[in-house]
Design a protein that fits this description.
Alpha-Beta Plaits; two-stranded antiparallel ribbon; 19 helices; 12 strands; 513 residues; alpha+beta
Length: 513
């Protein structure tokens, strides 16, 4: 510095003061440069690099440039995060969101789910049908709730799928009504790949009246309801339901071969495609969905149960069924068999007019089988999927049927006499147009002094049925001490009302045991 100063003074005539100020300015700049090289402080939003830490770590200039570029990238991402939030802290929010996701699923393990067809057998006496209506089944227990509860307790599904069944793409083949049982109910669901091996775990959490029998691997888009070709229902009932109205109705009745053939001829009138709007509720005759196709319907040979009562099984196979359709079909067939209404009532029920039809008890109704012929033809032999057939589980299904379903039906019939009590109500049905016939019968019960038009607005149809029940009770009391002729005299008024529906029941004599 001294040599440079002498050279400037000698050659360029710099004054001492000017040179002094230049030197001081130069020294100040040099000191700032040296301090900047020895002390590096890089500040970002939330990141500080300590120079002492860098010195002890022996970080060279190349490493410092890498740290500088990394700090710039952090600062850029942090600024982007701050654009959509408040108060900065983008790095903290990223760490918090990641840690919270990990905390929510600490033992998360991804499992491969496959589509399965489930085979269920259950006795529906204590349940309000198959379909789950509410989240809790304390007041209204259903089969689906118990099934999903068992899947949850076995660890096969989580809380999300338990609360929202559609998450596992669940579907049932048929919605059985209250008190209706099923021998082969089919459901489809997306469950883990090892589900078939875990069926015993599910049955441990199911009641004895519900059994998950087996499962079969199906295609990805298989739907138990929409892929179904037909459904077969059976109806177990005592044979005394087919007694003539003139004969004594009692448990010791035995069905003859002639009567069985006559009843099968009546059931054959349902075969084919017909309008079944009269066999369900809230269905207009013009509704296209009221047209149903019945493939087969017949009655089996009679057999004894517990050596106390004779039973028969009615089997009906159709593409699909509406609410109460099968029970009304059987109820009308029994009424025809007993002689309460002629056979052409079945044909008139297929017309557009509304007909009063009795509904048989739901105790003996069973879902026998669900058919998937088209699916089996297409996928059953592809080498990957199996045909939906349960022949290997036939013994298990029959054992459950004879242990948990048939005994319950027989014991309930013996204790509660549900079929016997229902037969008493057949005489109160008109088997004719509902409104017109009801008004005519109400007019006969009104006093001659009252105006018919005013009374029709005030008197309900139940008044007529109550009057008939009162007359019927008095007739039953009279049968214990009077002969048949006295009983006919007491039933004259009731016979006149019934004769409007059936011209062949003039000599009707009601007697029940």
């Amino acid at each position: 510095m001294k040599t440079i100063a002498k050279h400037l003074i000698r050659n360029y005539s710099f004054s001492y003061n000017c040179l002094n100020s230049c030197c001081r300015r130069l020294c100040h700049q040099m000191s700032e440069q040296l301090s900047a090289e020895n002390t590096v402080v890089q500040k970002t939003d939330g990141l500080v690099v300590d120079p002492e830490l860098m010195a002890t770590s022996n970080v060279d200039s190349n490493d410092r440039s890498d740290e500088s570029s990394a700090a710039k990238r952090l600062k850029t991402s942090n600024d982007d995060d701050n654009d959509g939030g408040e108060g900065g802290g983008g790095i903290d929010r990223t760490v918090q969101s990641t840690s919270s996701a990990v905390n929510q699923r600490p033992n998360f393990k991804r499992e491969k789910n496959l589509k399965w067809a489930l085979l269920l057998s259950y006795c529906g006496q204590r349940y309000y049908g198959m379909q789950r209506q509410i989240k809790s089944d304390i007041d209204f227990p259903t089969i689906e709730y118990r099934l999903f509860d068992a899947l949850l307790k076995a660890g096969i599904i989580g809380e999300d799928k338990f609360n929202e069944q559609h998450l596992c793409r669940f579907q049932r083949a048929a919605r059985t009504d209250k008190g209706v049982s099923a021998i082969k109910q089919i459901c489809s669901a997306q469950l883990p790949a090892n589900f078939r091996d875990r069926i015993p775990e599910v049955n441990e959490h199911l009641p004895e009246q519900i059994r998950l029998v087996d499962s079969i691997r199906v295609t990805k888009f298989f739907d138990a309801k929409n892929y179904c070709d037909a459904r077969t229902y059976s109806y177990l009932m005592p044979t005394f339901a087919l007694t003539d109205i003139e004969d004594l109705t009692q448990q010791s009745y035995r069905l003859s071969a002639e009567k069985l053939q006559e009843f099968n001829d009546i059931l054959a009138m349902y075969l084919g495609t017909h309008n079944y709007h009269n066999f369900t509720s809230s269905k207009a005759p013009t509704d296209a969905s009221a047209m149903r196709y019945i493939m087969s319907m017949d009655c089996s040979q009679p057999f004894m149960m517990k050596q106390l009562m004779e039973f028969v099984v009615i089997r009906v196979k159709g593409q699909s069924f509406m609410l109460h359709q099968i029970r009304k079909m059987i109820g009308l067939a029994i009424a025809v068999m007993r002689g309460l209404t002629p056979k052409d009532t079945i044909l008139r029920a297929f017309d557009s007019k509304r007909i009063d039809i009795p509904k048989a008890p739901g105790l003996g109704l069973l879902l026998e089988e669900v058919h998937y012929e088209k699916y089996n033809d297409k996928y059953g032999g592809d080498g990957i999927h199996e045909s939906i057939s349960w022949e290997t589980m036939k013994d298990t299904i029959d054992q459950f049927k004879h242990q948990h379903i048939y005994p319950v039906i027989v014991d309930t019939e013996l204790n509660e006499l549900s079929m016997f009590e229902w037969l008493k109500t057949l005489m109160y049905h008109t088997y004719d147009e509902r409104e017109q016939k009801a008004n005519e019968l109400i007019r006969k019960t009104l006093s001659a002094e009252e105006s018919v038009e005013d009374s029709l607005r005030q008197v309900s149809r139940s008044m007529f049925w109550k009057a008939n029940r009162k007359a019927n009770n008095s007739n039953e009391d009279n049968t214990s001490g009077n002969d048949n002729n006295d009983n006919k005299d007491n039933c004259n008024e009731l016979d006149k009302q019934i004769s409007n529906n059936n011209n062949n029941t003039n000599n009707t004599n009601q007697s029940y045991v």
